Structures are given as C-alpha cells and as structure tokens.
Amino acid sequence: MISKCLFPAAGYGTRFLPVTKAMPKEMLPIVNKPLIQYAVEEAKEANLGHMAIVTGRGKRALEDHFDISYELEKQIAGSSKEYLLDGIRDLIAHCTFSYTRQIEMKGLGHAILTGKQLIGDEPFAVVLADDLCINIDGEGVLSQMVKLYNQFRCSIVAVEEVPKEEISRYGVIEGKMISDDLYTVTNMVEKPSPEEAPSNLAIIGRYILTPDIFKILENTPPGKNGEIQITDALLTQAKQGCVIAYKFKGHRFDCGSAEGFIEATNFCYENFYKKNC
Ligand code: G1P
Questions:
Q1: In angstroms, rounded to a whole number, what is the distance separating the alpha carbons of residues 238 and 55?
Q2: Which residues form the Nucleotidyl transferase domain (predicted)?
C-alpha cells in the first residue's frame, strides 16, 4: 500500500520573479487556491494521507497554510465566508504533514533524496505542484497511477506527448508499448535537444517510486545542468528491473510557465470557482 506523497517544493521559481522573491512559487494561486493545495488534494484523492514536503529557505508559508489559524477561525466562524475554508480544513483534519529542508538546490533527484527520512523504506508518490493535473470527468492522475502500481509493483512515470519544439524542457522516455497507454521504459534522457529526443513522450510531474530509488540516487552523479536528475536514477532502475511509463487521462497545465498558468486559471475559474460561488 502506498500511503505517502512527497512534494519537492524548495525551488526558487525564478521564472516568476519578482512575485516569487519572498513568496514560495507553490503558494501562487490558481484563482483562490494555491498550487500546493491542488497537489495535496490530488494525493488525498488517491488515498495518500501522509504529505512529505521538501521545503527550503523562505518557504514557511507552506507550513502555515496546512495549519490552523486560530485568529482567522474565530473571525470567520458563522460568517457567510466560512465555506471558503471547507477544503483546507478537510485536508488539515485528515492528512498529516511533515517537512524537511533542502539546504542546497542540486536538482530534482537531490530534492527527492532529501525526503528519504520522511518516506522511509516504502513505495511513495511524488507530485510536482507546478504541473497541475485535472481529470474533470474521472479520477485524478495520482489515483490512476496508484492503481497501476498495485498491478505492476514498480516505479511509474506519467508521460504525455508534447510538440517537438517543447521537448527539451522535459525528461523524455523511450519505451516498448504494452498497451495503448502503457510502456516499459527502455531509455530516458533529461531535457534532450529535439534531435536527441528518443520520442515525443515527455515525463510530467507525477511519479510512483519504489524505495530502492534512494540508494540509486545516492550513487547517481550530477547530470544535465550539473544537477542530480531523477530521470538518470530512473534509467538505472529501468535497466536493473522495470519502470513503467503511463499516458494518463486528464489535462496537465504547466503552471511553471506564464501561458500554462493563465490557462489553468481560466479553466479553474470556469469549472470550479464560478460553480462554487
Ligand atoms: C523536472 C524533471 C523533468 C520532468 C519535469 C516535469 O524538470 O527533471 O524530467 O519532465 O520536471 O515537469 P523541471 O521542470 O523541474 O526542470
């Protein structure tokens, strides 16, 4: 059973400066809800109750968000705005939150390794909050992946087809097709040029990882951009055993880019915010 979800959230968010100067990028709002809350809600929907967040300097707002504000509770109790707190209250009541700090930014692989003490020796999920995933008519992406894990019992990465000119922003897989939406990974490259890319299947920020990934990460040298890459560690895992790539059902918004952020905002305004107010 998977019960823990890791959220790497130590990055600087330089693409959104200056708003991210004193505010964590994970707290950027899509309408009235921060990105990290969408991510935690997706994990809870997948029946993961333990949220492990890898933070860094200047990220205390994340911890405060998943805690009670007694002053606010007192003010809002019985008022017409109280319903706006329903979602966050539910998360606080039903999930546990633990935090650790990444002292130096040495890549996504390093961030995941920093979370080792919070995860222990069990399979776990990873969610990158700036990839906002919504499956409006069905179960969330993480929930889909947890089901697959129960079937395959190995690491799983979510992938989607992206246009050639965008491929160098992503980790890219090469795989043997098992079925329409499933591949056994045979190769993986972090942020290849369009010429080097082994396919158009890009990894997006949802992973299920088996705990042997930690030992592999400890022995993974810096790769692309001098950073320890989860993509490199997963390739080792694929060669040693098995890694599955899954073309998920739903829509991904790249909220690390201004275009994706605006697109997500419009979508959530129409589909969630307007309907609840
Ligand atoms: C990270 C991973 C990359 C993956 C991407 C998904 O890159 O290194 O393999 O495709 O997330 O969003 P980043 O966006 O942190 O540069």
A1: 28
A2: 9-268
Rounded distance from Cα 171 to ligand 1 centre (Å): 6
List C-alpha distances in Å: 81 to 72, 77, 91, 273.
11, 9, 18, 14
107 CB near ligand 1 (under 6 Å): no
Q: Minimal CA–CA distance to 209: which of 94, 91, 115, 99? A: 115
Closest CA to 60 of 104, 9, 13, 96: 9
CA of 206 to the centre of ligand 1 (A): 10
What is the identity of the amino acid at 173? Answer: I
C-alpha 68 to ligand 1 mean position (Å): 32
In the numeric block, the tokens 């930690």 are attached to 214
DSSP result, 124-156: EEEE-TTEEEE-TTS--HHHHHHHHHHHH-SEE
Give the model confidence (pLDDT) of 68-98 as tens digits. 999 999 999 999 999 999 999 999 999 999 9
The reply to whether ligand 1 has any atom less than 6 angstroms from the CB of 204 is: yes
In DSSP terms, which residues pair with 208 in a beta bridge?
Answer: 125, 156
Does 170 contact ligand 1 (Cβ within 6 A)? Answer: yes
Domains annotated for the chain, with CATH where assigned, are: 4-276 (3.90.550.10)
Bridge partners of 204?
158
Q: Report pLDDT digits (tens) over 176-212.
A: 999 999 999 999 999 999 999 999 999 999 999 999 9
The atom number, within ligand 1, closest to the CA of 170 reads 10
Distance CA 260, CA 178 (A): 31
| Sign of the dihedral through C-alpha 220, 141, 196, 165 | negative
